[in-house]
Design the sequence.
């Protein structure tokens, strides 16, 4: 293989890795939007909290002398998902439910307030410095002739890919097959009508916040392990990127969020690959503007039908 | 009526008494210490804070300024230019005329506009951007070297000692990082080394895998990074994971034990240009012991510059017998000072006439040793 094609493969691997995690976070935005038509701006902070909790659990277990990595990761995953879901549920209860039915801008403001509150709460309770964890999963494969260009694919990247894929498959099955999933879809089609048909829509809305938060916590654990660093401010940028991914793919559509995340990740990697990396954000957000100009509802979004 | 008069008498005598007590009491001179207390670079704010507070404590212990005592007041600008302006206004409103700070160049610059206009004396112990003192301000000083000194110093080391084949220069697009990176680029280019890459990354980014693949593709064997430790720490860590083994070099903004926490083993062998380690100076050992006693770390690059910033400020107060910023500024320019960071002399712009840097080898446990 030529040097350029090996290089492109390497950047594709990098882009898909970061894109998978954008997708995981983006689903939380898209599910909430799909059902209540609101952007949950505190969602990025849930990702940050998930990352912190998994760090605390991993560091605690390592400190207590546990050495079996799979056990540590599974415990961290469970604790992070449970606590982050509780935060997701609480945000819905505190910042959204009391405001349901009011002007659409009001819950938006309260979500931004919630986001600032959570960020500062973590900064005050955990200090605002970077907290680091030594690499837990090291090693990987390399291929390609080292004298030309050596492509590396680490075990950590494989873990991110497979975990994302597994979660996506489970979520798709949950939405399409289960009773709760059907209720979710019904809510997203017509919230008022679903309520009239005897489905407790408040519960379904709470459920979407919980599911979104659980996925963000998984992303928090994976990215925490991948980068090895958390600070209270990571939620903002991650949230912004994931929100962009959700809009790119068509906000409200779950496959759209997955696709949008991957496209955004790959675009960023390819831009850094062939242009100076400072243009990374210019190109990816420029792409967003272009897609919204020609397909305002996103790549997989359904065109908005005016209800009479 | 009689009773009223009596009351008035007691009241007025009480006021007289209070006045007398006031006159006998020593005044307090407040010194604002402005820098990041929160935010990602709060540890540098800590260095400045412990250095300045220690100086204030020692000077008070030694009898204060002609009988007056000093008081340090902490302000948090979070290294955010907008917050720095708000903090500067607050300091002016709080009637404080002496400031140690700010820390990040991008905060110091807008804040210094306010101090100059309001006639407040500001001495920064950490901001190294040359533009801060280029405006011809009268009350703005610094007790640290400039990027325009540090950049060329690092570049000369690269040219004479490293002699890289393919050099890359990366920066974080901020005033401090890009300023340094540009200074390094200019000097190495003059010496005939053409960097194969000169690129910016976004501060706060976590994923540098695309950048590292590109460095690898360009066969880069030496990277100069202009910026702070959170980004360089991650670049080092991810480079190691991806088998990219070039040598890295950075400015004092990366010279912090946290970089070893973030990068772990990957921080071994990183080159850092830092001001001399003033905590190693035999003359400062009593102070080092005083820091250790309070459980504070005196090894940070800004601790002693902050200490000497307070020293030159208070020496001038003693010499002139005033705390008026303009008189102090005139005195600061007129003479030289013996401080914990050596003999300091200011030029007309408020910069130090001479400030020396040293290249250190960084180690994975967060310590450093002079590079050969």
Sequence:
């Amino acid at each position: 293989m030529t040097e350029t094609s090996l290089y492109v493969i390497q950047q594709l691997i990098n882009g898909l890795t970061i894109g998978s995690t954008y997708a995981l976070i983006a689903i939380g935005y898209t599910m909430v939007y799909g059902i209540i038509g609101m952007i949950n701006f505190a969602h990025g902070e849930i990702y940050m909290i998930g990352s912190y909790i998994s760090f605390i659990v991993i560091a605690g277990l390592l400190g207590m002398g546990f050495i079996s990595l799979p056990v540590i990761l599974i415990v961290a995953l469970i604790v992070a998902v449970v606590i982050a879901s509780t935060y997701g549920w609480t945000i819905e209860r505190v910042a959204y439910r009391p405001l349901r039915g009011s002007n659409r801008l009001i819950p938006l403001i309260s979500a931004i307030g919630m986001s600032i509150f959570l960020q500062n709460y973590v900064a005050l309770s955990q200090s605002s410095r970077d907290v680091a964890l030594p690499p837990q999963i090291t090693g990987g494969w390399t291929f390609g002739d080292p004298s030309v260009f050596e492509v590396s694919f680490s075990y950590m990247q494989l873990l991110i890919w497979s975990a994302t894929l597994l979660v996506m498959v489970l979520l798709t099955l949950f939405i399409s097959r289960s009773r709760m999933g059907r209720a979710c879809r019904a809510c997203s089609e017509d919230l008022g009508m679903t309520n009239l048909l005897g489905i407790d829509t408040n519960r379904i809305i709470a459920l979407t916040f919980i599911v979104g938060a659980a996925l963000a916590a998984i992303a928090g654990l994976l990215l925490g392990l991948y980068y090895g660093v958390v600070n209270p401010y990571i939620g903002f940028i991650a949230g912004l990127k994931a929100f962009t991914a959700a809009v790119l793919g068509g906000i409200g559509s779950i496959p759209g969020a997955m696709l949008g995340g991957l496209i955004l990740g790959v675009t960023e990697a390819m831009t850094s690959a062939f242009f100076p990396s400072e243009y990374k954000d210019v190109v990816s957000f420029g792409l967003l503007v272009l897609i919204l100009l020609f397909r305002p509802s996103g790549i997989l979004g359904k065109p908005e039908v005016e209800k009479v | 009526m009689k009773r009223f008069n009596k009351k008035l008498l007691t009241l007025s005598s009480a006021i007289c008494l209070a006045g007398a007590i006031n006159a006998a009491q020593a005044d307090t001179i407040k010194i604002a210490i402005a820098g990041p207390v929160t935010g990602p670079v709060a540890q540098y704010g800590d260095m400045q804070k412990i250095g300045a507070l220690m100086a204030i404590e020692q000077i008070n212990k030694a009898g204060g300024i002609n009988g007056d005592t000093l008081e340090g007041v902490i302000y948090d600008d979070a290294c955010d230019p907008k917050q720095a302006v708000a903090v500067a206004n607050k300091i002016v409103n709080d009637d404080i005329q002496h400031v140690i700070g700010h820390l990040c160049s991008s905060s110091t610059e807008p804040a210094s506009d306010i101090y100059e206009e309001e006639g407040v004396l500001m001495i920064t112990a950490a901001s190294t951007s040359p533009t801060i003192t280029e405006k011809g301000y009268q009350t703005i000083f610094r007790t640290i070297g400039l990027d325009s000194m540090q950049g060329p110093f690092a570049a000369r080391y690269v040219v004479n000692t490293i002699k890289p084949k393919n050099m890359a220069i990366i920066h974080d697009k901020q005033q401090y990082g890009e300023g340094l990176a540009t200074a390094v680029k200019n000097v190495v280019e003059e010496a005939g080394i053409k960097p194969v890459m000169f690129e910016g990354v976004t501060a706060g980014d976590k994923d540098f895998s695309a950048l590292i693949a590109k460095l690898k593709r360009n066969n880069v064997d030496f990277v100069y990074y202009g910026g702070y430790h959170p980004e360089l720490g991650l670049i080092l860590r991810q480079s190691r994971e991806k088998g990219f083994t070039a040598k890295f070099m950075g400015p004092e903004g990366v010279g912090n034990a946290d970089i070893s926490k973030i990068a772990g083993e990957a921080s071994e062998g990183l080159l850092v240009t830092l001001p001399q380690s003033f905590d190693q100076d035999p003359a400062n050992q009593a102070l080092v012991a005083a820091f250790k006693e309070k459980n504070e770390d005196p090894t940070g690059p800004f601790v002693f510059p902050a200490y000497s910033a307070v020293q030159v400020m208070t020496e001038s107060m003693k010499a002139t017998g005033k705390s008026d910023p303009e008189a102090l500024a005139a005195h600061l320019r007129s003479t030289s000072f013996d401080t914990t960071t050596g003999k300091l002399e200011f030029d007309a712009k408020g910069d130090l006439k001479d400030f020396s840097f040293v290249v250190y080898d960084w180690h994975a446990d967060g310590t450093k040793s002079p590079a050969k």
